[in-house]
Amino acid sequence: MKNRWIALYVENQVGVLAKVSGLFSGKSYNLQSLTVGTTEDETVSRMTICVTSDDITFEQIKKQLNRMVEVIKVIDLTDVPIHMKEILFAKVLQISAAEKLEVFQIAQVFHVEVADIGNDSVLLECKLTERRNNELIALLKSKFRRVEVVRGGSVAIESISTSCR
Amino acid sequence: MDITGRKLFVKALQEEGVDTVFGYPGGTVTDLFDELYKQEGIEVVLPRHEQGLIHEAEGYARSTGKVGVCLVTSGPGATNIITGLADAHYDSIPLVCFTGQVPLSLIGNDAFQEVDIVGMTRSVTKYGVTVRRREDLGRIIKMAFYIAATGKPGPVLIDIPKDIQTAPGPAEYPSNVQIRGYKPNESVHIGQLKKAYKLLRSAQKPLILAGGGINIAGANDKLAAFVEKTQVPVVTTIMGKGAIPTSHPLYVGNSGMHGKYAANMAVSRCDVLFSIGTRFNDRITGDLNEFAPRAKIVHIDVDTASISRNVVVDVPVVSDANLALDKLLEWAETKDTEAWQKEIAAWDRENPLEMRRDGGMTPQMIFEQINKTFSEAIYVTDVGQHQMWATQYLELDSWHRLITSGGLGTMGFGLPAAIGAKIGNPDKEVVCITGDGGLQMNIQEMATAVTQGAPVIICLLNNYYLGMVRQMQQLFYGKRYEATCLRRRKSCPPNCKGPNPACPPYSPDFIALAESYGAHGIRVENQEDIRSALEQARTYKDAPTSIELMISTDELVLPMVKSGNPMSEMILK
Q1: How many degrees, rounded to 5, is the angle at CA B194 between CA B190 and CA B195?
Q2: What is the tens place of the pLDDT at every residue in B155-175?
Q3: Catalytic residue among B14, B15, B43, B113
C-alpha cells in the first residue's frame, strides 16, 4: 500500500466529478485527495488524484477511469518527475505578541507568507508540498492553542527539465 | 429550418433503424408519445410495469442483436427501470433508455415526479446524461446509440427535460459522432495474441473457457472451428453456454458453482486455461487461491478493466472475440489432446450430471422433454434453481439460444425478457423457463404478452418454495426454512420443516390466473404428460401458454460448490 498520483483529463461537464468520485466510493478505493479545475481548453478539466492502494488495485483504478466515456486521458504521475504543490491557509488564533513573533519565525523557516494579521491572530498562506504542509500544521498545533486550517489538495504537473517532486 | 425536440427524437429513432420502442407514458413524456402516434414504422410496446418494460427491451436486444429502446416518464417511471439498467450493465446488453424529466427551470425544486435519475444510475449505466440544451439533443442521441452498441455493450440513459422536447432547434441528426474519451478497441495486439497461442500450443492439458463474450460477438462458428482444428476441450460459463453446440464432442460442460463435475475438475487440473470473453466472476472461480492452480492463464476480453481484476493472468489480450478468433484460426494447428480428453471423460463417467428417471417428474425429465420438443427455439430463464437446471440440461446448438440474467441474477427477468425476445423474433418459438417465485415478480406482463400477441411458452417449475434459498437453508442452515415457503400462512406452525398434507393451498392458482389474462394454462402433475402439454402449447398461436409443472420441493441443484470454496470441492449428493 502506498500513495499514488494520477492526472486525469475529463470533459468539463455536469456530473463528471460525481461520476469519478462515485467510482472511488462504489468500488471501495481509498481516495486521499482530489482537486479539479479547468485547463487551457475550457471544455476540458484536469483532476489531480491521490490514492492509497496496492499495485493490482491501482492498475484496476486506472482501467476503470479509462473506460469512462467522460474521461479523456489518464496519466500515472506516481513515478515521473513532477511539480506538485498544495495551497494551505493556516490561521493562528488567540496568541500573545511574543507568540506572534514565534509564528513569524516559523513562517520564515517554512518560506510561507504572512497574508493577514490582527490583534491576537496571524494568517499564513502556504504553497508547499503536501508533506511539508502536514509538518507545518503539526508544528502549529503543538505550539499554539487554536489553529484554523483550510487546504486545497495537491495539484501536479509534469516537470520540464528538472526531476523535482 | 428548426424543428422541435420531439420531432428530432422521432427522426433520430428512424435514422437509427429502430422498429420497436418499449414505452410507458407519463407526464413528462407525453410530447414524445404524441410524436410517436403520428409516425409509422416504429411500434410502441406498452408493458404493465417499467421493470417489465426494460427486461422486455433486454430480451429484444439480446435476441436480435439490435439496441433495445426504452421510453419512460420521470420520477417513478425512471426509478422502476434501475434494476433493468443494472442487469443490462452486468450482462452487456445494449440499451438506450429515454427518461422524461421535469422542465429545466424546475430541476432541483423537488418538483412533482422529479428525481435525479442520472445521478442514481451512474454506477449501473455505461453512460448517462441530462440534455440541457436543445441543440445538443441530436448529438447526444447519436452518441447514446454508438456507445450502447460498441465495445463492451451496455445501457445508456438519456434524461430529456420536458421543455427540451418542445423547444425548436436544429433539424439535423448527425450521421457520425466523435467522442474523444471513448475509443472502443477495434484491433488486437498480434504480439500478445501470438504469445497466447504459443502457450496453448505448448500445453499438455489445454482448456478453453468460453464466456458470454463469444455469444455477444456472435463468434460461435469461429470458436467451433478453432476448437475442431486444435482439439482443445471447452468449458463455458453460464453466459457462455451455447458458445459451441452442447452436443460437440469437445464440449465438457458448464464450470462454476453449479457446473459439471468434469468441467470443474478440468479447470482445476488444466495446465493452460485459454479464456475468451469472461470476467472470472466469483461464481466461476470460487476460492481464488485454488482456481486453476496448475494453469497458466490466457485472458482475451474486449474490456481492459476485466483483465487481471479477479484473476491475475499470464497473457492478457484486449480484443473482441471475433477479431482474436479470426487471427487464431490463421495459426491454428492440430494438437494431440487425446490423453487429456480421456482424463476428462473419466471424470464425467465418475460423476455425470445425474439424469434421474426414478423420481417421477424430476427437473431432468422436464428438460429432457423440452430438449426433445423444440428444434429451433430461444430459451429465456428467470433466476433460481430452474435457471441452473436449464444451464445444466438444456441442449443448445446453433438454432437454440439461451437468454438469462447471469450477472445481476434478477428474479422477474424471465417472463418479460421472453416477451421481448418473441416481439423481436415473431417467427421463432420462445420458451420461458421460470419458477413460481420469479414469475410472480413480473406476472403482470402476462397482459403484455396477450395484448402484443406474443405467444411465449412458459414452463413454470413450481415447487412451492423459493427453491435456491431453500436449498441453502437445507444444506447449510439446519433446515430452518425462514421466508422461503410461498404457501406459508399465519396459521402455519412456526418451525415447519417442509410440505405436509396440512399445507394451505398455493396462491395464486396459476392456471386460473393465466386464463384471467386471456392466456392458456395447463397443469402437469405426471411426467408422462410433459410432452403433450408442450405440444399443446405449441399449437396456441394467439396467446401465451403457462405450463405449470409440479415438481418436488426436495429437488436440489447439484453439483454445488459452497460460495467461496475451491471449485474442486463439489457437493455431489
Answers
A1: 120
A2: 999 999 999 999 999 999 999
A3: B113
